[in-house]
Every structure is written in C-alpha cells, then in structure tokens.
User: Which sequence fits this backbone?
C-alpha cells in the first residue's frame, strides 16, 4: 500500500514539473508579445515552479526510502526540506521582480497587444488552477508536505495571475503605463507573503509539530475507547514527520495483569490508531497501577 502511494506521489511530482514547464512557456509567450513587466513577473514565478518541482521530486523520492540504521525513524521529513527550498526560491523571485518593477517605474513603457497577452496568459492560469486543485487533493490524501506546498504555491500563482490580467486589462483600456510596474510590485509582495507561509509551515514540521487539535482529540477518543482493561492512559504526545504520525503515551494496568493481557490491549489500541491515521507509529509504555496520575485519558 505504501509502495503504491509512493509511486503515485512520485508520478504526481514528475507531472508537476511537466505542467510547470508548459505553463512557463505559455506565460513567457504572453510576456514576449506584450513586453509587460507584470507578465514578466508572472513568468518568473513559473520558473520557481519548475525548480521547486524538481526539488519536490527529489524530496519525495528520499521520503519513501525505508528506515535504515542511520535513520531508524525513516526519511519522511525530507519533504519539509523541499518546501523550505521552495519558500526561499519564492523570496528570491520576489526580489528580482521588485527590481524589474522599479526599473519599469523609472522608465515607463507602453504595453503592446495587451489583449493578446491577456488571452495567452489566461490559458496558463486555467491550467495552473486545475493542477493546483489536483496537487492539494493529492497532498491531503497522501499527507505529502511537498505536494501540499506545491499546490499552495501554484494556487497563489493563480490568484496573482488573475490580479495581473485584471490590471493589464485596465491599463490597456486607459493607457496608464504606470499600472504595469505597480502590478509587478504587488505580485512580488504577494509571493513574498506566500513564501513566508510555505517556509513557516515547513519549519513547524521540522520542529516536530503536534497533531492539529481536531486530530489530537480524535486520537485521544480512540485510545479511550480501545483501552478496556487498563486503568488509565496519561502523557499522550503526538508529532508529525511528513506523512508519518507518531503517537506515544503511558498506559497504567492492574499490577497483577499478565503481560500477554497488557500486550493484547496495546495491540487493540495500535490497530485502532493505525486505522484512523494511516501508517501511524504507536509507542505505548505500560506501567503498574501505582503509577496512575488520574489526569490522563479516561478508559471507557
């Protein structure tokens, strides 16, 4: 099952590179026919998409490698590095765009064939929209930070493109050349914001962020409902490492309980958690009843 998931994620990452190259070519054509610095900024962001796609493919390939002696917990965190690199690339692209926008502000130039450029760029925007939605679905389905980061970035690219196209239509209708560099600057500021969001989300994962509150509550409810025979569960801790979920806790059992019976309770809890969180790694520390804290997860 994991192998099938890995192949699908890798295939999606490879297709992302192909889509990014196609969109880049279309957007550059829009810039070429218009000379618009705003369309140039939109095309430059697509270059980031291509590079980010290559990095994501590498990260996904590494993340599906099995655990080994040097990495006993697996390689799932590799995908976070992809998202960090993508965030850095976004920041670099934004700085280049701001530089181009400033030059166009100092020396404004008329936009040639604006409606043709809008039409060409619109095709690329529609392609990006459908692919971003696909990446976001796949990222959620396979708990892939790399695909999710790519999807969020491309969706931000779609929003940026819509703003650029709207502004260019106004500039073409009014002849206000100053709108072109102004739009480019807004594109840069928007992708800076998105770049920060991508990096922040990735750093949270690298810092062993816990499950979100809803999933944490669900995990505790599953433990409570599956721990019949135990006295209590306490010190529940969770963390996320890419698509992998780690759940650990202490379970207090009667002092006279046989090891085989305590083990059966552990197996029941593990199976229930792994059904709810695919591939969850569960660690249970069994304690005698003298260790009860009366502050943990109640056993139903």
Assistant:
């Amino acid at each position: 099952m994991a192998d099938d998931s890995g192949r699908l994620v890798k295939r999606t990452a490879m297709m992302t590179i192909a889509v990014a190259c196609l969109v880049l070519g279309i957007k550059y054509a829009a810039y070429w026919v218009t000379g618009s610095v705003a369309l140039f900024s939109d095309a430059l962001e697509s270059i980031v998409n291509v590079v980010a796609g290559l990095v994501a493919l590498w990260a996904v390939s590494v993340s599906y490698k099995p655990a080994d002696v040097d990495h006993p917990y697996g390689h799932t965190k590799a995908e976070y590095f992809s998202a960090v690199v993508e965030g850095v690339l976004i920041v670099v692209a934004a700085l280049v765009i701001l530089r181009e926008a400033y030059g166009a502000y100092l020396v404004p130039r008329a936009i040639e064939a604006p409606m043709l450029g809008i039409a060409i760029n619109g095709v690329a925007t529609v392609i990006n929209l459908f692919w971003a939605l696909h990446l976001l679905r796949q990222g959620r389905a396979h708990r892939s930070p790399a695909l999710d980061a790519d999807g969020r970035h491309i969706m931000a690219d779609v929003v940026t493109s819509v703003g650029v196209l709207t502004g260019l239509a106004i500039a073409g209708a009014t002849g206000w050349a100053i709108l072109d560099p102004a739009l480019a600057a807004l594109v840069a500021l928007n992708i800076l914001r998105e770049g920060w969001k991508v990096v922040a989300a990735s750093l949270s994962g690298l810092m062993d962020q816990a499950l979100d509150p809803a999933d944490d509550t669900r995990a505790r409810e599953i433990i409570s409902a599956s721990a019949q025979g135990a006295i209590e569960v306490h010190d529940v801790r969770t963390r996320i490492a890419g698509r992998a979920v780690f759940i650990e806790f202490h379970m207090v059992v009667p002092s006279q309980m046989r090891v085989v019976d305590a083990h059966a309770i552990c197996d029941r809890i593990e199976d229930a958690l792994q059904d709810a969180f695919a591939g969850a790694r569960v660690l249970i520390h069994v304690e005698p009843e003298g260790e009860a804290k009366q502050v943990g997860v109640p056993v139903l």
About this structure: The CA atoms of residues 128 and 158 lie 6 Å apart. The domain at 213-291 is CATH 3.30.70.1350 (Alpha-Beta Plaits). The chain has two domains: 2-206, 213-291. The chain has a mean pLDDT of 81.
